TrEMBL record:
PANTHER family the record matches: UBIQUITIN-CONJUGATING ENZYME E2
Chain residue ranges for the region called Disordered: 115-144
Protein name as it appears in the record: UBC core domain-containing protein
Keyword match NAD: no
Domain of life: Eukaryota
Signal peptide from the UniProt entry: none
Length: 386
């Protein structure tokens, strides 16, 4: 939060992901929400009006290191055998609680999933309404529900990273016994600690359920969309016009790499076929996608699923495409970004787009690893045309 006299005075920073004040995620991020850091990493440094929000964000990011144990003052050079054990134990419990508190619980809340796995009454009624193919639904452009765009971002990224979560859970579960209590660190005190126990099998169950619910929500957009089309709401006609304009533009540009059509005349579900361009790494491939569009577009962003198996750094094992449009409010930018994500041959490394762990490791590994990646990609390209 910024004060009225910002930037003369520094903004205040408060952590909100604290499990209601019960979890200290870092030596510098207290359970109370207090965040302790220096603006440029120099002890005793004072705030300067020449600094901005970027310096604050960089400072916060620096706290989230691979070795948070050494963030505690006085532990910067702690290298005894006991310290090494503490470091491992600290990272283990942070990883567990990061999944539980920062990934799983916010999504369960937005999807109406109760802790034991059932859904709230409101969520169940919404699901029942969505199952009637648009019949009986009364949608109104003047009474749109408020969309939590951050929740939508969480859902899309959860689908991107689902396989990463599962692999992390399975790896930890093989090393850490269930119900083992978290080890309290020397610098943690009552009321400002991270207490609890490990339960990776339970986390796995909840992660799998989350994916099922998000996929179900995505499919329910189609019946909602048919209801919007039946009532001749603006979003339905707008998407229809956007589709027709994109198809016309592709024809005019003689772009033979992309083919678009509506599935069952539903403007909320687009079938996208990509034909690999000659002399490219996708040459000869034929890849089919489904683009699911929310009736609350663009507040809720499309979700793109790859139906043709492909070994690609931007496609998860579960067939979810990771892409970032330069503008989110028009579908033509999404189509453009989908093609760019597929065709880019030398993208810069960005951990946010790590959705296929094996492909990522090979692509940004050694020269021999890159050759293995290219071979695996070509094999999937050749198989797609069979």
């Amino acid at each position: 939060m910024t004060a009225p006299d910002y930037p003369a005075k520094p903004p205040s920073v408060r952590a909100l992901t604290t499990n209601k004040g019960r979890c200290r995620f870092n030596p510098n991020i207290y359970a109370s929400g207090k965040v302790c850091f220096t603006w440029r990493g120099h002890p005793g440094e004072e705030w300067s009006s020449a600094q901005g929000l970027e310096s604050i964000l960089i400072s916060i990011q620096s706290l989230l290191s691979n070795n948070p144990y050494e963030n505690e003052p006085g532990y910067e050079n702690a290298h005894t055998a006991e310290d090494k054990e503490w470091k491992v134990s600290y990272v283990e419990k942070i990883r567990h609680e990061n999944l539980r508190i920062a990934v799983i619980e916010p999504l369960e809340s937005s999807l109406g999933i109760l802790p034991h796995g059932s859904t709230s009454a409101v969520s169940e009624r919404a699901s029942e309404d969505d199952d009637d193919d648009g019949e009986g639904q009364t949608l109104s452009e003047d009474d749109k529900p408020v969309v939590d765009q951050f929740a939508d971002l969480r859902k899309r990224r959860f689908l991107w990273y689902f396989d990463s979560y599962i692999q992390a859970i399975d790896a930890a579960d093989s090393d850490i016994s269930r119900k083992r209590k978290f080890q309290r660190m020397p610098f943690e005190s009552q009321g400002n600690t991270m207490d609890g126990h490990f339960d990776y099998p339970e986390l796995r169950r909840r992660v799998v359920l989350l994916r099922e619910k998000i996929i179900c929500e995505t499919h329910n957009w189609l019946s909602e969309g048919l209801g919007a089309k039946k009532q001749e709401l603006g979003i339905a006609s707008n998407l229809q016009r956007q589709y027709e304009q994109i198809v016309e533009d592709l024809k005019r540009q003689k772009n033979f790499a992309v083919d678009l059509e509506l599935v069952g005349t539903n403007p909320f579900l687009w079938a996208f076929t990509y034909f690999g361009r000659p002399m490219s790494h996708l040459d000869g491939g034929i890849f089919r996608f489904k683009i699911y569009i929310s009736p609350r577009f663009p507040d809720e962003q499309p979700r793109v699923f790859v139906e043709t198996p492909i070994f690609h750094i931007r496609v998860s094992r579960e067939g979810v495409l990771c892409y970032s449009p330069r503008r989110t409010d028009e579908m033509r930018y999404h189509i453009e970004a989908i093609v760019a994500a597929l065709e880019e041959e030398s993208p810069p490394y960005d951990p946010r787009t790590t959705v296929h762990l094996e492909a990522t490791k090979l692509f940004w590994g050694s020269t021999e690893d890159r050759k293995k990646y290219n071979r695996a990609l070509r094999q999937s390209v050749e198989k797609s045309a069979e």
